[in-house]
Amino acid sequence: xxxSNDLLLRTARGEQVERPPVWLMRQAGRILPQYRAxxxxxxxxxxxxxxxxLAAEVTIQPVDELGVDAAIxxxxxxxxxxxxxxxxxxVEKRGPLFPKVIKSAADIQKxxxxxxxxxxxxxVYDAVRETRKQLDGRVPLIGFAGAPWTLLAYMVEGSGSKTxxxxxxxxxxxxxxxxxxxSKITSTLIAYLKEKVNAGAQLVQVFDSWAGILSPAxxxxxxxxxxxxxxxxxxxxxxxxxxxGAWFVLEDIGQLDCQVxxxxxxxxxxxxxxxxxxxxxxxxxxxxxxxxxxxEEVAAAATRMLDAFGRRHIANLGHGVYxxxxxxxxxxxxxxxxxxxxx
Amino acid sequence: xxxSNDLLLRTARGEQVERPPVWLMRQAGRILPQYRAxxxxxxxxxxxxxxxxLAAEVTIQPVDELGVDAAIxxxxxxxxxxxxxxxxxxVEKRGPLFPKVIKSAADIQKxxxxxxxxxxxxxVYDAVRETRKQLDGRVPLIGFAGAPWTLLAYMVEGSGSKTxxxxxxxxxxxxxxxxxxxSKITSTLIAYLKEKVNAGAQLVQVFDSWAGILSPAxxxxxxxxxxxxxxxxxxxxxxxxxxxGAWFVLEDIGQLDCQVxxxxxxxxxxxxxxxxxxxxxxxxxxxxxxxxxxxEEVAAAATRMLDAFGRRHIANLGHGVYxxxxxxxxxxxxxxxxxxxxx
Lengths: 343, 343
Description:
Two copies of one chain form a homodimer.
Chain A: H1 7-12, H2 33-40, H3 45-50, H4 52-66, E1 71-72, H5 79-84, E2 89-91, E3 95-97, H6 105-109, H7 114-118, H8 122-135, E4 141-146, H9 148-157, H10 165-173, H11 175-199, E5 203-208, H12 216-233, E6 239-243, H13 250-253, E7 260-262, H14 269-276, E8 281-286, H15 295-309, E9 313-317, H16 327-339
Parallel strand pairs in A: 1-4, 4-5, 5-6, 6-7, 7-8, 8-9
Antiparallel strand pairs in A: 2-3
């Protein structure tokens, strides 16, 4: 099955391309009326994640509606804790909630890991297969996972948090347990991402959503080594590492065996290139709120961003698109990138 | 009235000192049992802020209990929107809530500004006077205010938020109104800080708590010019600018006419020094969660931080101390700094 628009994959492999590919984090979601229509007739978010036909449908919606150059499988980073034995609920307007959290060695002992945990997630691999089939080669399909530190953060904190101070406290006061838990998460993530690739994911992105709340020393101790292990174990497809807020370790991230580095909207493209080095492809990083502006301003801002990045770039926002973003702003962004040509 | 421990002021003025002074953001607060005892017999947080005798009492508690080298007046950055005509409530466990928010030119038109807004805050100046009297020169007293962008963020968003996307949308879609509002806030802040200094504040700190969610371009357009105006208008005492998360404009902040630059815990001291330049005093930046560790580890981490900063440094955390921090950790931090000597 060939891909007719393979711009994303050619760019990720470092090939010379005529313009950057464009997609948006959270493009499959509440910005689309088609998504809201499906979501509103379901019992909840998890039903959508766990039903392969529906997940495939909403994954493809932004390809149809926005004309983006890639699809990203509709799923959730928290399927991994659940597969390991720590179920979660998605509470409307409040976010994820774990009825049980990790507090002790015994809690960690009980968790599944590696292939046996990854085997719990057949519905994700089915969704990937179904999506590839329905996409029929129109654009590449991205798979993703949360990074070990971000998953530990939820498993210890039990919910979202402004500070994740319980999870950080765990790192400072239970260093040995933290490493045990991170190892179990990592072995699960590797098995999971390999299954996703087997099912048809053509690039995988690792999201370290809470990277930015760790100090540089903590990030190097508890986050980076596990990402390095994951990235080194995926040879089959290009890998993107997006450590949101972790500007202070971009030089280290530049040393990872990944092809693409995601950037948040705080990071000036020139500085990112200097820190990451000349080889890797950079992805990002328009402020998601820029899309609230008038379409012509969105287009101008997108073009300025593309000029600043130059080649070896995948156009995206610096964060997931916010649910109340006007479709006109999103479309103006996609259109401006697709009209762009490298000089 | 002389100050017997004037280490903070000597350091802020760039004088040669034997060790760095130490205080903690939010040191007057829930970490102290004395504070919780007072707070629990009051109707709410605002009663404490608005009652000068009580505000003075809790301001002095950390000087007694922790032996820190400075007091910071117990107050709230949101007294400014309230003085301008936008009252707020402090909702237990949820944070600030503004029943009315700024949406239109007419809303901005109605706001008080400058001296007439600042005149509403007599209780703050009384608290400063009362605290100075009771401190009787033991340590210097710091005054503070929120920065214009951070105050606009609350006045438009109406509450705390992970993304402040309503406030950021306002910047992108109502640029002219945003500047009008920022100007009114700025004139109020200048009058307010001058009154605070008249009442006895010996150093003032400007907190831009939500600096880190703006893009570099937005920060330079909507935040920095107003901070510059404030800083330039305060000649009487040293000024600290703490733009949390705004690592990407530290070079610009280094050009401001302030004496001290606050740093969050993500920012490596060496890099901050390089960006800010050799002259200014740096303040910060231990990870607040480091204080959850065992006291001997806290002391070791504090010493490593002091070594990394070298001279021209005020020891502090990189964020306000978290309410559940053990007192032993806080005391180990203060003690380690006070035992330190420059070589």
